[in-house]
Amino acid sequence: MAKSIMIQGTMSNVGKSLVVAGLCRIFKEDGYKVAPFKSQNMALNSYITEEGLEMGRAQVVQAEAAKIKPSVLMNPILLKPTNDIGSQVIVNGEVLGNMNARDYFKYKKSLVPEVMKAYNALAEEYDIIVIEGAGSPAEINLKENDIVNMGMAKLAKSPVLLVGDIDRGGVFAQLIGTIMLLEDDEKSMIKGTIINKFRGDKTILDPGIEMLEDMSKIPVVGLTPYMHVDIEDEDSLSERFTKGKSVGLVDIVVIRLPRISNFTDFNMLENIEGVSLRYVSKAEDIKNPDMIIIPGTKNTMEDLMWVRQSGVEAVVLKEASKGKIIFGVCGGYQMLGEELCDPYNVEAGRSIKGLGLLPIKTTFEKEKTRTRVKGSFKNIDGPLKKLINVNFQGYEIHMGITQLLNESAPMNEITDTEGIIKEDGVALNNVYGTYVHGIFDEEEVVKGIVSILFKNKGLDYENIKTFDFVNYKEEQYDLLAKGLRESLDMKKIYEILEAGV
């Protein structure tokens, strides 16, 4: 059976996911078979495996860092928030149903056998399992029946490294306060602490580190720097949403929906020289873009009402009338249609009018479509017509079935993992829609779109640099591992791993 080490944090967004990814790459570099694991993840960014099962994207990133295929075993429980008090519960990649927070809190303990079945399956195949916690282990109102922090550490008999974020301030209080709120047996499982996202002169911090170790009786095993690595993240606090970005030669706006999902769809567009990709949640901030993308969402109908009430709809319609490229993905594709109907109360339980830019009607069904696909653009008109016959791959993950109206032709021909050929999407003049997540991960697709946007502005695209996205990600994982290896006491971490609890 594999040895394990668990990364917990003093709160959300302290860097747990990246520390896990970095350790996965380090252990891989050192010759071990390593896999990530997170018993329960809450995120709207999800991924479809080759088997058509749904899992959290953070564990996909960590699997990439470990140079292994993502498996739903790495994330047996995924919670996808549907509103402020409820989530869709996904177990072993399949939808169990929607639950409010209180009902799930009572129910989750019954999922322990499923969690351990997944964990043990990984432990039989790999040498090391790097487990990620969620939020903080010191949420005293949630500790009962915990299955993701200390509860999971006990189940896996795993030593714990506790991560605090110095960049947000109060790191010593974070770490000491968290430890003090734990039970004695839980405290004994913490074998080291990590101060993350440090900037400045380490010697100034040394007295604090000495006091922290003296008070906690736990060694500090790392002072990790604030690393400028470009690695996918799924946290709602993603810096992608908040960082200010000046408008480039070509400006692409992504509408930041309240329940935006799979925003990693657009990462490749962020890395094209001369292109700005801005996430916008206010109508007045849309300004004068060259292209507007409406992304996926966990709740299409509620987010469509937000688009309408916030004034974003009026701006999108105005820009569409000017001939600007409007592109909808998944839920965004559904919004662009004539009507959305929900006869089975999957979302809002009624029918509402769409933006009316595409000749489609969407009906929400009880079953979720989940599959990886390969395909190509076939019937595409307007400014993006040069994409005809360009290939792409990605995945579908949606509840709705979309019907083309007015004898419209589908934009894409796609083939799923079972070899079934299907139709997808529609194009009308300068408005486009598809169900395929990951369609912008293909260099030829991105290059085609960006070259058109440059040409529309009378600019020369030939000198704009593109890059191999797969190699770029590998370089970023290597940079992350290098930064962690230089700042963590890996000798001590290996000792902790070997000793267990």
From TrEMBL:
Pathway connected to this protein: Cofactor biosynthesis; adenosylcobalamin biosynthesis
PROSITE patterns: GATASE_COBBQ
Name the UniProt record assigns to this protein: Cobyric acid synthase
CobB/CobQ-like glutamine amidotransferase domain residues: 251-444
Keywords recorded for this protein, A-Z: Cobalamin biosynthesis, Glutamine amidotransferase
Active site: 330 (nucleophile), 437
Similarity section: Belongs to the CobB/CobQ family. CobQ subfamily.
Function: Catalyzes amidations at positions B, D, E, and G on adenosylcobyrinic A,C-diamide. NH(2) groups are provided by glutamine, and one molecule of ATP is hydrogenolyzed for each amidation.
Coiled-coil boundaries: none
The species this protein was found in: Clostridium cibarium
SUPFAM superfamilies: Class I glutamine amidotransferase-like (SSF52317), P-loop containing nucleoside triphosphate hydrolases (SSF52540)
Family annotation (Pfam families): CbiA, GATase_3
PANTHER family to which the protein is assigned, alphabetical: COBYRIC ACID SYNTHASE, DETHIOBIOTIN SYNTHETASE
Domain of life assignment: Bacteria
NCBIfam families hit by this protein: cobQ, PRK00784.1
Location of the CobQ/CobB/MinD/ParA nucleotide binding domain: 5-227
Keyword Signal on entry: no
